[in-house]
Amino acid sequence: MELTADDARKSQDPICALPGRYYTDPDLYELEKDKIFAKTWQFAGHISQLSRKGAYFSFRIADEELFCVRGKDEEIRAFYNVCQHRAHQVVQGEGVARLLVCPYHAWSYELDGRLKKAPNDDKVPGFDRSKICLTEVRVEEFNGFIFVNLDPDAKPMDDWYPGAREELRAYVPNIDDLAPALWTHAEEDCNWKVSVENYSECYHCKLNHPTFATGVVKPETYNIMPQGHCLRHTTVSANLDRMTYPIDPNANEHAGDYGSWFLWPTISFQVYPGNVLNTYHWEPTGVDTVTAWRGWHTPHGDALDHITQLAQQDYDTTVVEDIRLVNSVQKGLKSRGYVPGPLVLDPEFGVNSEHSIRAIHDWVRKAMG
Predict the structure, then answer these.
(1) Number of helices and strands in the chain (H, E)
(2) Phi-psi category of residue 251: left, alpha or beta, with phi > 0 → left and psi -120 to 50 → alpha
């Protein structure tokens, strides 16, 4: 008797969620720093922060202190923020400098990382400045956003996230003119993956996000599909006359559309109707704590009343609603009573399918070995 596709589906054991220890075990979280955060493309900042030669800003990834700087040759580079002499941090915060001077013993470096001068080095036999350089890391610009990868052998972003760069640019035609205008953040008492997974499915939207589900998207049309290491969110926008800011749906091809591109593991680009771009990125701060940052981007970073109002509405509704959800999930993951249940994998995909969660779990398992 020949087995049909339906019979095969029925005979398979369902795929279950990750065990709770993936979200609660401090040792696994420490391993993630090496296996995930140090081997993936991580958001660092925006090119508007490096608008002139010598401009720099510092940031942190996986317990590593780093900084980006624009060189005299206009190239953007990224370095570990550690002096090659006695390991003091070279820079703090952001600023502009002709040379990078360590505040501990005044060792100075060119903007391309080469050692220029160390006080009294001419008295040291065999001291060769040409052999001393700040340790550089991979850096890429993605539609004006700066990403770094601590893995020198990592594949380019376009290999990781095929098509995402071009698709995002189509949804935000003026993306080259944009800069961060304002930031909101939420401190969540959960593992970073809990928050990422919550963002990456809309199974819960209709029940828990009434404003988003009626004023921005139509949940019954919501779909999320893997695209390399990207999760591509597509949906039909809600009635545009319900939006709280003016939209000209004829301004360009995607003026009336909503879209989202989550780039594994910790950032998403989200476009609201009207080609309004916001970013969502996660900064893990412990095994069961994470800061979720929402950035709103406008032409030249100008303050716009309707963007300020939209950001506040988004925070007061979707963000606050999600904090309640993810904090509750983290408590449940610590419970002796939690047994991972089967993921809802609808063969037809759609809003009530968790194919996106399966993709995330596969990426986690593969990365962790």
Answers:
(1) 11, 17
(2) alpha
Question: What confidence tens digit (pLDDT) does each residue in 217-234 have?
Answer: 676 777 888 999 999 988
- Whether pLDDT at 132 is above 50: yes
Q: Are strands 276-286 and 289-299 parallel, antiparallel or unpaired?
A: antiparallel
Sorting pLDDT into bands at 50, 70 and 90, what band is 113? very high
Using alpha carbons, select from 107, 56, 63, 116 the residue that is nearest to residue 84: 107
Measured CA to CA in angstroms, residue 268 lies from 216, 261, 271 at distances of 17, 5, 10
User: Side chain identity at 154, as an amino acid letter?
Assistant: A
- The amino acid sitting at 268 is S
DSSP 203-272: TTHHHH-HHHHHHTB-GGG-EEEEETTEEEEEEPBPPGGGSSS---TTSSTTTT-EEEEEETTTEEEEEE
* Contact between 271 and 260 (Cβ < 8 Å): yes
Residue 81: strand, helix, or coil: coil
| Domain-wise residue ranges, the chain | 42-149, 171-368
Strand order in the sheet with 42-46: 42-46, 145-149, 136-142, 76-80, 64-70, 55-61, 94-96
Residue 198 to residue 326: CA distance in whole angstroms: 7
What are the residues whose beta carbons fall under 8 Å from the beta carbon of 327, sequence distance 6 or more? Answer: 188, 189, 190
What pairs with residue 57 in β-bridges? 68, 94
Beta bridge partners of 149: 138
Task: Give yes or no for a contact between 112 and 73, defined as CB atoms under 8 angstroms apart.
Answer: yes
Alpha-carbon distance of 332 to 342, in angstroms, equals 16
Flag whether the pTM goes above 0.85.
yes
SS3 53: coil
Helix (H, G, I), strand (E, B) or coil at 116: strand
Class level of CATH domain 171-368 = alpha beta
- Residue 4 pLDDT > 50, yes or no? no
Contacts of 211 (CB under 8 A, 6+ apart): 313, 317, 318
Instruction: Look up the CATH number of domain 42-149.
Output: 2.102.10.10
Which DSSP category does 150 fall into?
S
